[in-house]
């Protein structure tokens, strides 16, 4: 009797297939794409998806990181090591350089540089002529991201208009752009934080160590655990505590906070994520404690 093939596919298989299709669509339709890679968990998932889409050949695009200069050392070290391991080109453009050119002006050195990344990104897009930037944003992160298409059009000024987006019928994507325009492409837009961690566990993906439980000095501020660093020193009246924490998302030190957690591996994090009722940004980003309108304004100006 012939063997019966097991055709059952998990939800991760479907999400993976969709993301690989989107990446291949970018490679086929866009002249000069780039994959944004910060060393964070979502961009690590994108790298694995790119491997599955294009290996054993080279990626049909370089990697790029917009470096705020306020990143955790563990993440930058991981970023460089992972790019070298893959043998892929990594372009790094720095907010510090934009500050030196005068295109970014901050009130003080310790200000969050999250929003300022948009300027440096637009400068890099113009420098290299990129017409598609592949990123790891997900719709569950916050409400403004949920309004975006998978292929999100940006005009010649790098601006996004949420009221004039292109229709995406089934899996038909319009990638046409004129000179100076570009697309922001989100292959894991339909994934959730839980999906990402389940995929990390399934694929046994390496991540920066700060995603897992470790000891860190923090202070409690506005309902968040703020890491004690030269950029985020204790304020008057705040007491330093040494707690077991992990980061749900990583970014600019001046606005990224850990959460109290004993989870030291992906399975433990999956168990925590499955029962949480607070989004990762709501629980960890000081500069995201703002209105949906404020975040939407940032995105209209070029924020990824």
From TrEMBL:
Region (Disordered), start-end ranges: 281-304
Stored PANTHER family: SULFATE ADENYLYLTRANSFERASE SUBUNIT 2
Family: Belongs to the PAPS reductase family. CysD subfamily.
Protein name per its UniProtKB record: Sulfate adenylyltransferase subunit 2
Example GO BP: sulfate assimilation
Pfam families for this protein: PAPS_reduct (PF01507)
Gene3D superfamilies recorded: HUPs
Enzyme nomenclature, EC number: 2.7.7.4
Domain Phosphoadenosine phosphosulphate reductase as annotated: residue spans: 33-257
Keywords: ATP-binding, Nucleotide-binding, Nucleotidyltransferase, Transferase
Single GO MF descriptor: ATP binding
The keyword Ubl conjugation is assigned to this record: no
UniProt entry tagged with the keyword Endoplasmic reticulum: no
